[in-house]
Amino acid sequence: MSHTFKFPHLKAVPLEKAYRLITHGPTVLVSAQDQQHTDVMAAAWACALEFQPAKVTVVLDKSTKTRDIIERSGFFALQVPTRKQLKMVHAVGNMSLYAAPEKLRQSGVELFQFESYDHIPVVQGCSAWLLCKLIPEPHNQQQHDLFIGEVIAAYADDRVFRDGHWYFHEVSDDWKSIHHVAGGHFYTIGEPVSVNDKV
Amino acid sequence: MSHTFKFPHLKAVPLEKAYRLITHGPTVLVSAQDQQHTDVMAAAWACALEFQPAKVTVVLDKSTKTRDIIERSGFFALQVPTRKQLKMVHAVGNMSLYAAPEKLRQSGVELFQFESYDHIPVVQGCSAWLLCKLIPEPHNQQQHDLFIGEVIAAYADDRVFRDGHWYFHEVSDDWKSIHHVAGGHFYTIGEPVSVNDKV
Asked: Which residue ranges does the record assign to the Flavin reductase like domain (chains A, B) (predicted)?
């Protein structure tokens, strides 16, 4: 079934604007699957790398099963969770699939797939998704735990991101992106400011 | 003159907690100097890479003079500007020292140095500073414009960061970190949320 039928607010984002989904520095969820496993983890250390072709970096510790899956499958998604998902984000960030095979169910993660990308599981209820193909770089992966992906498709929920811009300031606080500090502590994104604002 | 005399609120941050200064994803300023030039630029694509030894990544376009200086000097600082500095951040992010030799003066940047680090210029009025030694990686630099630094010293203004935690919610909005989206548009950091909060 097409995602557009089940989730009518999810709209494709042009690849050259995909960087705008994470340039403001939110903590993201990283999801991936191989033939045996599906995992989702939290990552505060994710970043845009290139406008076009759109690329991203994400730091994946060797202790995570998600990393192992991505090394095998070559695909992953970064997605921007919302304040409403805070407890789920913290839960998937603090449980390993190695130790907790029922991690996703216990964390309350619900998955779906975008049409044509059924090999990349994504998390329901986020505000934006970047579907990525791993650019294998053994040195970066081994030495720095640094993974580089080319963005092959991007989507956002048009209630909070549309026409290339976030609208966090027009929707309820539940939609705000969350920005990790340490432990269980985060900040939400705040108010829009522009260099053209009168001071 | 010691910075502690002129700026009594600036306190050293233990290196193992330096990541907390940027894990929430702020737009940063990048500063560096060589024997001829001093430059400061804005970078939204900066990220923590490792806890200990503390490391960071930052994407530096080939068009920037700051990048050229860092390749020559081997040192740079990342610093977290405040909402009060928004226009300055946007100015240094949109002028190149190549085209505008008076860029820093025109942007209103005021520099200082931390004691023992007089080869790394830093910007007054920010909330936190990470002094870095470049880890030269020709492939990452050439192929991805990606620069990796080891954090050799870190400082923060104790009015907004102390004991390993940000206090954005206890100080005026002027102190808030800014998070770039596109063009002249940013969001400030918002409110603290914790997994232990009652919903």
From this structure: 20-163
